[in-house]
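Predict the holo structure. Ligand: NAI.
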Amino acid sequence: MFLYCGIACRRKFFWCYRPLSTYVTKTRYLFELKEDDDACKKAQQTGAFYLFHGLAPLLQTSAHQYLAPRHSLLELERLLGKFGQDAQRIEDSVLIGCSEQQEAWFALDLGLDSSFSISASSHKPEMETELKGSFIELRKALFQLNARDASMLSTAQALLRWHDAHQFCSRSGQPTKKNVAGSKRVCPSNNIIYYPQMAPVVITLVSDGTRCLLARQSSFPKGMYSALAGFCDIGESVEETIHREVAEEVGLEVESLQYCASQHWPFPSGSLMIACHATVKPGQTEIQVNLRELETAAWFSHDEVATALKRKGSYTQQQNGTFPFWLPPKLAISHQLIKEWVEKQTCSSLPA
Ligand SMILES: NC(=O)C1=CN([C@@H]2O[C@H](COP(=O)(O)OP(=O)(O)OC[C@H]3O[C@@H](n4cnc5c(N)ncnc54)[C@H](O)[C@@H]3O)[C@@H](O)[C@H]2O)C=CC1
Ligand SMILES: [Mg+2]
């Protein structure tokens, strides 16, 4: 879809016309909805709503996958009416995206209520029956969602959680008020604006040239190893966090690093995962695991990692009581980081 739009050209300040791509049109539309409360309210009339209860998304099962249904405003009003809730609850919804046809998408938590009414949290089983789905913890469902639903629900959950936790101004103690889109909250008594926050986290795959270093925390599912991860401390650059985390967790000094990709991650409460490859000097590879942070860490060969990446299915205990070595699923950025390392190693070992 191409639209023609006036664009003010900086130097001569005349209007020129060029087609805007669907992506640009969509981005500008979302920007307008965040800035203009009336436009956003209007967009709710034709929009669609993802539903949550106590931060668990409403999901339906289809062929071993979960699907996230969307509901129209009319359907939502009918549902709220049926369970004795005020249609004003819709004001608690947050904008999370839109379709290419500019259908705005919102998320609403039926179990969290900005007016702290407990009536909102009852009726969960009845709502599930009515909605022909279940409210399932995102941690349990994330890897059985398609990439788009996973991304939408992750964004929605992080934003709903942020609003729930920022109901009051930390300076005046007064209730804060969200804008219609939910892109900010304002304290009416002092006009302080609060914006949703996320925590930057680095995730680093350390290599010594032929092997890569993987670790596990005791909270990980049995047998699963991942790259080293850590929150950025205040005042640190991404590079400094990587050097510190690798030193802190496995006692090694990083020699060089290279950016790979980034990902929004909804856990523990909305992180920006920044994934990098790092190398250590070949002679300096002796790991000293920090047991306060990790259960264990070890070097793995290319073949071991390549085999684990191909492994599919569930990971049941073996006869000797151990669990097979496996890696995070595709949707996690650690998977992408490890896969990229395996591919690079494969290319560099090919004869020239
Ligand atoms: N998407 C992916 O592929 C992966 C994501 N992760 C995520 O990375 C996150 C960080 O990894 P960890 O090794 O646990 O970090 P970490 O090595 O920094 O240790 C966690 C500790 O850092 C402290 N901390 C500092 N700032 C924090 C903040 N803003 N929020 C929470 N705790 C903070 C707490 O004491 C916490 O116990 C995990 O929560 C996990 O969700 C981890 C591995 C893979
Ligand atoms: Mg860590």
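The pocket of magnesium ion (ligand 2) is lined by residues 229-230, 249, 293 (CB under 6 Å). The radius of gyration is 24 Å.
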